Amino acid sequence: MRITLSRLSCLLFGAALGLQLMLASRAAAETFTYKGICDASAAVAIDANRFVVADDEKNTLRVYRRDQAEPLDQSIDLSKFLDTKPNKESDLEGAAVIGNRIYWISSHGNNKDGEVQKRRWRFFATETAADKSPPVAAIGMPYTRLRDDLLSAPQLKVYKLKKAAEIAPEQEGGLNIEGLAATPAGGLLIGFRNPLHDGNALIVPLDNPAKVVEGERAILGDPIELDLGGRGIRSIERVGSTYLIVAGPPGDDGSFALFRWSGEKGTKPGPLPNTLPQDLRPEAIFEISALKVQLLSDDGGVTTDGVECKDRDEDEKEFRSIVLDVDE
Q1: Where are the domains of the chain?
Q2: What is the pTM of this model?
Q3: Would you say 132 and 72 are in contact if contact means Cβ atoms under 8 Å apart?
Q4: Topology annotation, domain 26-325
Q5: Which pLDDT tens digit goes with each residue over 159-189?
């Protein structure tokens, strides 16, 4: 049977469209709502059934079963460890796993009014013991000088981070960190939501995270710029041999998208089929098994009956999640 070039093109297009529709239907089918918090901002899997999540409005880590809406009674209050008051958040925004250690990073920016709050200058680690309750415990010491390291690094001068650190994090050109991912060499990639540089998102490698949480100064690598369509990095995760990036607006207005990136400087990320519900605000992505990831939505700004989620009573707070199958 002969297949003309035009017929072959139609078949290929149809197959690609079918794959996109299949992925979209999978995402919709996996949507799930968790209770207890609204502002899910960073998370990692503890095992095949549980994950631990940070709320950027509190200094408490919560543990959930993936199939259970209510959090488990295994919360970890980090207020004393981070040297902050319980009701004064450190704005935790990113997490990454290396072995049984989880590294966490706060925004390192100012508050929404542009005021300096040093409690947002935190980088620290926890260790996981799946058979203990709670299964996560803080180790070492929180590092509070990363912002100074970033602002003084000569290879980062072009990004004008000192100026960025003087304004609100979601204002154009503001300083705002939201992504953290592990590298094969045992380092970390710090992903910036803001500022952009010539429309590109910024990544700064951190080469010695294990030493940093022991008190040594951070060793920062050469910056990496990624074209994410004018978006910043809301979350980044190494999955298999590549990275998946949740890209979103530097401020409040704009669209979200998923990208795959090789991890090599100078290579361009490729967009994945748009399987995200339009009203989802994903700010955490983590691998739950081989080529399967879970995304959590920061729903603090979702309004119901005129009241934002973050302003509701504790028993009314919730955030949404979807699960996606991804190929290498």
Answers
A1: 26-325
A2: 0.90
A3: no
A4: Neuraminidase (2.120.10)
A5: 999 999 999 999 999 999 999 999 999 999 9
